[in-house]
Amino acid sequence: MKNEGFLMGMGLLRNFFAVLGALVLTICPLGENAFAQTYPIKPITLVVPFSASGPTDTVAHLIAGPMGKDLGQEIHIENIAGDGGTIGTLRVARAAPDGYVILINHIGMATAPALYKKLPYDPLKDFEYIGQAVDVPMVLLGRKNLPPNNLKELESYIKSNKTHVTIANAGQGAVSQLCGLLFMSREGVELTSIPYHGTAPALTDLLGGQVDLLCDQTTQVGPYIQKNLVKAYGVTTPARLSSLPNIPTLQEQGLKGFEIEAWIGLYAPKGTPTAVIAKLNKALRSALNNPAVKTRLAESNIEIAPMSKVTPASLKQHLESEINRWGPIIRNAGAYAE
């Protein structure tokens, strides 16, 4: 009981100083400028709201070193997985607005408001925006022995078999689920969705022929495509990928308006000084221009966002647009999480 009381007291004390610091920066512009000039004076924590080894974690580890070098302080990665990324994201939303705890998150920032009925944070009100970092393309796959060989044949096959066609996903809120929802929405069909606890088991069952389709990130499935262990029906980007040049886009095959990428951006708690955000943005841009980072991202089939997107204003605009885009699709599909 004493330990619980002590921890509760420490938590209240941290919250007090966080609020006090935010008030000082708000009412004292000179204090904000002085703070920004010396920032950072200690290591920074970059929260990844997912488990290690996933695409978002991969990007975090690739950019953390170069960003830290630009800022003159180390950036430590903290993985806080759970509830589709909401636990780690909430950790940053509640952190002190001083630039020492920041967030890297994917398209889930835009879909969470529709997926979760009681989301404990507001992506548009509880964060400052550092910039978009990368775009992770996706591809629609089929099991190797699925009869159709292209999208037109797949559409005919689906119409003939309807709900007997299964489509796997990596779980509630996963990008693979969103891709599946968008595919069904654009095609006007309802397939049998089968959720898994992660991409690995979903992909295992696709490789084993237990499920028919899976739409997921190229970082996860690229090697299986190149080894012809699955059928690739199309990539979800506007143009073909340099890493998979022989796979047509879904759009060029007639599925107009089908575009989804697991874009990834960086955020800070609401109230973080503008000058601090500017320093973090500069460090992000420097990292994305690092030759070694470019090579590693290309090897992972991850595309660096155009520099015009690597800005606070662009990330905010993109997030708003994606929230408006995905909300109706998720609500119409009844794809809610508790």
Automatic annotation (TrEMBL):
Entry keyword set: Receptor
Q: Does the keyword Transmembrane apply?
A: no
Record's InterPro entries?
BUG (IPR005064), Bug_dom1 (IPR042100)
SUPFAM superfamilies found in the cross-reference section? Periplasmic binding protein-like II (SSF53850)
Q: Does the keyword rRNA processing apply?
A: no
Which family is this sequence assigned to?
Answer: Belongs to the UPF0065 (bug) family.
- Protein name (database record): Tripartite-type tricarboxylate transporter receptor subunit TctC
